[in-house]
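Q: Sequence in, structure out?
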Amino acid sequence: MLLVTIAGGFARSLFNVKHIDLGLRTAHVLQFRRTATQWLRSGRELRLFPQLEDRISALPGVLSLSGTQEP
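A: Exactly. Output:
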């Protein structure tokens, strides 16, 4: 009986953690990933990403833009 009670409390805790409102709104978020290819590694990448950021930032409704680079 003790084990069932503990398991129930653990399950309820997991449910509560999953439903905590962190204040982050993920509606209308676009996320994408690009794969580095040979032509991107050739130096054209240095010109591509600033242009891509400028074009995406200019789209109607875009409030912010961020990017990361993986090694």
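The mean pLDDT is 80.
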